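The instructor's notes for this session suggest beginning with a concrete chain rather than abstract definitions. Hand out the sequence below and ask the class to guess, before any prediction is shown, which regions might be ordered.
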Amino acid sequence: MILEIKKYISRLPEKIWFRAMLFSVAAIVAATAAEWIGPLIPYKSDMELASGSVGDILTILASSMLAVIAFSVSIMVSAYGSATSTATPRTIALMLADDRSQNALSTFLGTFLFSIVGIIGLSAGYYDDRGRIILFFATITVIVLITGTLINWIQQLSTFGRMNDLIERVERATSKALRWHGEHPFLNAQPPVEVPAEAVAVRSDIASGLVTSIDMEQLEETAEKHGVTVYLSIHPGKLVYPARPLLYLSGGEAKSLDPQAFRDAILVEHDRSFDQDPRFGLVVLSEIASRALSPAVNDPGTAISVLNSGLRCFEILAEASADPEDAKYSRVHGPEIEMRDLFADFFTKIARDGAGMVEVQQRIQLCLLALARSWPEIFSKAASEASRDALARALDAIVHKPDVKDLKARSQDVVETCQ
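After discussion, reveal the predicted structure:
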């Protein structure tokens, strides 16, 4: 329950309604504060403003912002639909969490409410002379803010939801997760070891779902409290069900304690997320490439762009893995993610769906060769297996002899480099 609350709070900034609510509250406070601040001004300005002069400006702002909000929402909904049909539905979560679109929509909504509250206050005689002057300068400030936001929003609309934009978003999320994974192997815990025969299995007590987060701090504190050692058998992204062990406990009070506190440290939801799950981003990238390689789309260029993104992601993983941080949790043994699994998540699907496209197969072999040459101690084994698999799939689909010869030579380079 505690982990669910933490996760909910951490995801609040990604919600459109949350940021819109904050901007709306700030706008209402700004509009009403003009009358409170007026008496605090030590001098009276020679500038005189009739309520109608400020009210006219606010009326224009309110009507224009209402139209801009409706237009912006329609554009965003259209972009979400386009992303679902051209890329993959898994990219929608990243688009919904986009800071620039949230700031733009929240600013427009906040300006609309600021104008409405200001108009109501003027109509009710809420502001005195000083209050109207403060409201006027606040309105000028809002206009400047809106102008900058509109310019930025117009620029963003030219790329929002386009294929390159979606690939970049997924690449950033994947790179972030892979970098954390490289810097904190085994979820910042001890490396996996053989589970003792007397260890007690802790199984899920809820319906099947996908692990999205593991609170390692809570696991460590609970293990320390009961004097036990924890052996995690799952990592974020894994499917769990009532019969599958989440972890094992040994030592101390392992056989007599209530394991619910350990279960509560593992969050199981219906959908995967990018946060702690480095494999999910690679899966989403491969889905984008697979959609592009479908007969209905037939766009190998997009698949090649995805392969380039994946190559950069693996480079970030290798750089982060070169200097990992010391394990923080001494009583928890974390799970290991095999490099071959990461390669399978990314390269296998693209090699399968692009088996008959020589340019895609060539780029796969090139990416594998780059990784094997640059970081042989990390990627050599997985790259060799992936190269052989991609070549086998290509040989089943490509009949042009020069292409076959070229792919065999490229694969041979990868295999020899990995030896």
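Then share the key points. Residues 187-269 form a domain with the Aldehyde Oxidoreductase; domain 3 fold (CATH 3.90.1170.30). The chain has 15 helices and eight strands.
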